[in-house]
Design brief:
Elements: H1 4-10, H2 17-32, H3 38-66, H4 78-81, H5 86-111, H6 116-129, H7 143-164, H8 169-192, H9 194-200, H10 205-232, H11 250-257, H12 266-288
Length: 289
């Protein structure tokens, strides 16, 4: 039986910035529209956290029963390492996704935007079929697109809309920036896993682009948010605060651009996540000012 610490590690806490950053950036864009609500912001954050934990457990379960994680290089996987039974991890995944659904329903009921239930259902289905089902889209190179849509566009714009009842170009810019960061995290992860993914038959975008192409993609993705910061400066000069997070990526850019392999790429996931969260916080503060 897995220990509490192993269950926590299995939830992949390093990915939590991917859930927090979209909501923080969305709050900033909502403040710029004078549409901020504490209760709706907190609910949006809880939905996002439950969703990403559900994704992580579902990914652990699906990859584990397929044997994809048997020879992986990264952190602990519950099923792949054998420390937890597949059914237990599946139950944790379904419980997390179910909680995301319930909290999302409460948020929709409070906002009165019932059509958002469809978007919530799509997010939950997207979380499961990333690596679940007979033909998981994450195995066919569509994982990066899904991350950009769900933890970028949907996460930021959904947070803005349930509070302000409208969107803006500023909100879209924040959504693109956070989506690029979040996709960068996944790209760094899949870059590290190219050898084992090829061996197990998992055809991620990284395995299709190859080592050099994936490294170029990562560098482009982490540059996008800073281009957005410059563009947002036309709305408020305070948006340039987001540029202060660029030094957090220096080691990651050096590792990815310099050809680092395997475990040497693990810090790139963490640093990209921290840069994303820092960018979201500083940009939210800028938009509030």
């Amino acid at each position: 039986m897995a220990t509490t610490g192993e269950w926590i590690e299995g939830a992949r806490p390093r990915t939590l910035p991917n859930a927090v950053a979209p909501v923080v950036a969305g709050v900033g864009a909502a403040l710029a529209l004078d549409g901020f609500s504490w209760s709706r912001s907190v609910l949006a954050l809880l939905v996002s956290l439950a969703l990403i934990i559900g994704v992580n457990y579902a990914n652990d379960y699906s990859d584990g029963i397929r044997g994809t994680d048997e020879n992986r290089v990264g952190p602990l996987r519950l099923v792949g390492s054998g420390v937890a039974k597949p059914k237990a991890v599946l139950a944790a995944a379904l419980a997390s996704l179910g909680l995301a659904g319930v909290l999302g329903l409460v948020l929709v009921a409070i906002s009165g935007l019932w059509w958002l239930l469809a978007m919530g259902a799509i997010c939950i289905l997207g979380a499961w079929f990333y690596t679940g089902g007979k033909k998981p889209y994450g195995y066919y190179g569509f994982g990066e697109i899904a991350v950009f849509v769900f933890f970028g566009l949907a996460g930021v714009l959904g947070t803005v809309y349930v509070q302000a009842g409208q969107l803006s170009w500023t909100a879209l810019g924040c959504a693109v920036a956070v989506g690029a960061f979040s996709t960068g995290v996944l790209t760094a992860n899949n870059l590290r896993d190219i050898p084992t993914d090829i061996e197990s038959g998992k055809r991620t975008l990284a395995t299709r682009l190859g080592d050099k192409g994936t490294r170029r993609l990562y560098l482009v993705l982490v540059a996008v948010p800073y281009i957005v910061s410059v563009l947002l400066a036309f709305v408020t000069p305070w948006a340039l605060l987001g540029l202060l997070t660029a030094p957090l990526l220096l080691k990651s850019v050096k590792a990815v651009g310099g050809g680092s392999q395997g475990r040497a790429l693990i810090p790139a996931l963490r640093d990209t996540g921290f840069a994303m969260l820092g960018w979201a916080i500083l940009t939210a503060v800028a938009l509030a000012l």
